[in-house]
């Protein structure tokens, strides 16, 4: 009886196990004992198994396995058998994926280099041993843009891995943490790192060059033309993140998307945590289909779908911008919201029709369009830095208003100033106090009784040439000739009698017209 034993290290390769299985199947009943998993075939004396040569179908194994007396001889340059603890080069041995249609044989060494593993280079990954050399050896063996696997465990290297390609490689971590701690590994030299830890996916990269590519990039293209039908309109996203917060008590901050940037850099660079850019290509109009669809650099939306008053449903903000700082800002370098415009490449001039536009659907009403809140120490609204451009009809106004629109000076909108058909009118509620004409004269009379107790200007001078005293007089008694000189008139508000009238001194006698 002759026993052929093939050690475990060799049997790890499917091609050899398959060969032994075929031998066993062809010579079924000729074995006294078989254990393919251990690599043992024991032939029964005098059977075909015990004869030479061994065959599998039409294939002869005589070139691989030969009997010499009671020994089995393995041809060294054809097949190498490795026992436990032994080493050897099997990189040139081919293997094929079993049961996969179209699979072709590939050398084991070539297949292994597709995804390098740091443990193949001696990495301990116990968080205590220094694995710098193992990581460097793995990187040296890597091709350009290669992926190197790092099995689960600790992570400890004392310097960045060297060797290999000049461009970054990808280290694919499997829950590795720094040392024996719980922090995920997110950077290895200037390479890219991908890791998964405690249910979260991390990507990391340390860059030291200009215009380097993003750590994660998503490219999309949509070629659907669509129609003008409302039913044919929809939303397409290049990246979509969905989150749900059920009806639970949630006192903490919850951010579905969060970009955090820490910058201590100096120089003229600009560093942004969140950016969005939209471009209309230079050749966008080449197809002759007219103006293009609207484009936005950024869009934010908040919707309350309860259809209930806000005091019942809660607060909704379309967008919030919060600037944190400390100490003074005499240089005016802190700006909570900066809106600017610039030139595209090749342009020498540009106009932007509207800097800020606030509005909504025709069915929507705003309580207040623009309402600053908080303290200020210079001006709530300043136009000191604007430069009006005269386009031929004179410099444009700083503020434009329609006729009959008012400026209010209190929260109740009682004290107001408005322009009415060429007159500047001061009002208290719906009552006119006084007015100025286009020449700043007061000869246009008021037409309503002033509110009781309202103090008018204490003016006694005469507007020469008009015969009208400047201002409206508010008193608790009727006027006398001592109040209005001969040949002069004045607007007189008697708050005790609740009257408003024009009073004139005609040859020493007072005559008046009362206004409703």
Features:
516 residues, disordered N terminus, five-stranded mixed β-sheet, single chain, mainly beta
What does this structure look like?
- With 516 residues, the chain is mainly β.
- Among the domains are: 3-105, no CATH class; 115-205, no CATH class; 406-514, no CATH class.
- Helices cover 7% and strands 20% of the residues.
- The chain is built from five helices and 25 strands.
- The strands form eight sheets. A five-stranded mixed sheet has the order 10-11-13-15-16, covered by helices on one side. Strands 21-22-23-24-25 form a five-stranded mixed sheet, with no helix packed on it. Strands 17-18-19-20 form a four-stranded antiparallel sheet, with no helix packed on it.
- A hairpin with a 4-residue loop joins strand 23 (489-494) and strand 24.
- The radius of gyration is 45 Å and the shape is elongated.
- 12% of the residues are buried.
- Residues 1-28, 32-40, 52-61, 68-81 and 444-466 have low confidence and may be disordered.
């Amino acid at each position: 009886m002759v026993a052929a034993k093939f050690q475990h290290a060799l049997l790890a390769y499917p091609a050899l196990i398959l060969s032994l299985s075929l031998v066993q199947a062809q010579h079924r009943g000729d074995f006294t004992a078989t254990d393919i998993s251990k690599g043992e075939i024991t032939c029964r004396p005098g059977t075909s198994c015990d004869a030479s040569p061994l065959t599998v179908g039409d294939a002869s194994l005589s070139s691989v396995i030969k009997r010499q007396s009671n020994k089995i001889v393995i041809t060294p340059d054809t097949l190498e058998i490795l026992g436990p603890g032994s080493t050897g080069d099997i990189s040139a041995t081919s293997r094929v994926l079993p049961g996969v249609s179209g699979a072709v044989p590939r050398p084991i060494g070539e297949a292994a280099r597709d995804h390098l593993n740091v443990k193949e280079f001696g990495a301990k990954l116990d968080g205590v041993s220094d694995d710098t050399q193992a990581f460097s050896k793995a990187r040296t063996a890597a091709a350009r843009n290669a992926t190197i696997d790092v099995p689960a465990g600790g992570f400890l290297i004392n310097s960045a891995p060297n060797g290999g390609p000049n461009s970054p490689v990808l280290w694919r971590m499997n829950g590795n943490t720094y040392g024996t701690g719980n922090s995920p590994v997110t950077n290895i030299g200037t390479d890219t790192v991908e890791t998964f830890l405690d249910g979260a996916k991390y990507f990391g990269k340390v860059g030291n060059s200009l215009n380097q590519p993003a750590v994660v990039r998503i490219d999309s293209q949509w070629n659907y033309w669509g129609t003008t039908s409302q039913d044919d309109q929809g939303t397409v996203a290049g990246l979509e993140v969905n989150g749900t917060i059920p009806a639970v008590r949630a006192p903490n901050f919850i951010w579905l998307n969060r970009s955090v940037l820490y910058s201590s850099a100096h120089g003229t660079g600009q560093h942004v945590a969140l950016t969005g850019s939209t471009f209309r290509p230079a050749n966008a109009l080449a197809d002759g289909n007219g103006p293009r669809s609207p484009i936005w650099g950024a869009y934010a939306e908040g919707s309350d779908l309860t259809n209930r008053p806000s005091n019942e449903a809660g607060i909704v903000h379309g967008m919030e911008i919060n600037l944190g700082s400390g100490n003074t800002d005499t240089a005016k370098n802190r700006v909570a919201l900066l809106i600017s415009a610039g030139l595209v490449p090749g342009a020498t001039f540009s106009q932007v029709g509207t800097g800020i536009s606030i509005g909504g659907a025709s069915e929507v009403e705003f309580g207040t369009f623009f309402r600053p809140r908080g303290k200020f120490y210079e001006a709530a609204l300043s136009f000191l830095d604007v430069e009006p451009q005269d386009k031929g009809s004179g410099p444009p106004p700083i503020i434009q208003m329609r006729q009959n629109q008012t400026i209010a000076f209190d929260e109740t909108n009682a004290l107001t100033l408005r322009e009415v058909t060429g007159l500047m009118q001061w009002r208290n509620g719906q009552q006119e106090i006084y007015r100025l004409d286009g020449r700043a004269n007061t000869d246009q009379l008021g037409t309503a009784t002033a509110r009781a107790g309202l103090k008018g200007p204490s003016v006694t001078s005469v507007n020469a040439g008009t015969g009208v005293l400047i201002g409206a007089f508010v008193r608790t008694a009727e006027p006398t000739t001592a109040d209005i000189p001969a040949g002069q008139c004045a607007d007189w508000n008697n708050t005790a009698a609740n009257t408003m009238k024009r009073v004139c001194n005609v040859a020493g006698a007072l005559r008046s017209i009362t206004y409703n």
